[in-house]
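Listing S7. Sequence submitted for prediction.
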Amino acid sequence: PPATCKPAARAPRPDLGRADAPGPSGNRCGSFGVQVRQLLSMARSTGACLLGVVAVYGARGARPGGRRLASRCGGRHQRARVGLRFSDRGSEDLLVKEKQLDTHFRPLESDVPGSAWSLGTGVFNRELGQLILALQGTPLAGFADFLREVCPGVDLRPSQTPPKILDALTLQIEKVVERERERGVPESSELVKGIFFVLCFTLDRLYEGRPIPKFWVLETVARLPYFSFTSVLHLYESLGWWRTPQLRDIHNAEENNELHHLLIMESLGGNNEWFDRFVALHAAIAYYWVVVVLFVVQPSLAYNFSHLVEEHAYVTYAQFVEENEELLRGIPPPPIAREYYVNGDLYYFDKFQTSRSEDSKPRRRPPCDNMLDVFINIRDDEFEHILTMSACEKWWAGEGPTPVPSSEQSSLGKRADWVQWSEEVNNLEPKAIRSNSGP
């Protein structure tokens, strides 16, 4: 080789554990493979930059990638309190020390904010590693080895697997469809109904026999309309077109409720698989923009779409509770469930249930003694979302009263009081004010 070439100083990568991994004495200077590897590294960096912009979806709830942990229980509880176990993946090169995992899977309160680049590249690095792990032992294992070669710094620390007892949970899709047929599908336009049926059919077939991952995907998607509603309402206020902060507050409370459903599913390992995260998060982005467009064009259609989704969620949870009642009764609730339903912000819990105003139904204070209570509470929450979405739909269509409870309608003051105050101020004279105020 030319005299200017120097041996590569790069140490062998312990994560590969391969006999052909180049060591400190390996001379790769000028090789075509290094050039290709450099180009691929540049392409990866560019892709990570683009993904970094998109990956701000990590702020929409439980953070994906390295900061996502099935046993994190909403970021408030350590994984030892949930009882999830690590998967050894059956390969020595994928084993990591417990101490390393503790530093990697840290609670949400220890997370630090970052730029879109830092968050996005971190998620990209973690999810690429999870993709490589998912491809091990499949016909695409060779492609996984290729990815490990061109991305040597990828995070290959294994994820966690849920308790085996959850494998006994069942959900019969045929009975869910039968329940929906008995309840009747709410009226909708052909466009909205078509999108809805495609979504439901895909989830039902893709997650048949895997109820907890399906619920996690469903909750990830179901909370996105509330982001869409509040985004458009913020835009209307910024343009000076229309302002109803009470409605935004209701949608924020609804999203907070769906967020805790999501965290409960994560505590059960619903987001453990790379494929499930990929499907849910990308579908959620698409769903967000679909609802934004519908809300801008015709708000009642956007609420109708959400109404259909909440109806499907309610029926699905109802069937799940009926099928697994005995088993769920013997499983203790995750800490995040008790934190929300017993010790949490009950004011915000009450706010999204617009059908239970102070002069109608009593406030809900559901028990949370076991996993059966948790899923019954989630089922009943979905029913409250149905009522709120139906009320919003009728209001925007001009067919019903406002969904904002009467006690909230005057929270910013009444217009008559504003007018009376302005008349009093307009009649004041500066000299009279000074004389009355004294020296």
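Caption to Listing S7: primary sequence and predicted structure tokens for the chain studied. Confidence is low (pLDDT under 50) at residues 1-110. The first helix runs from residue 32 to 54.
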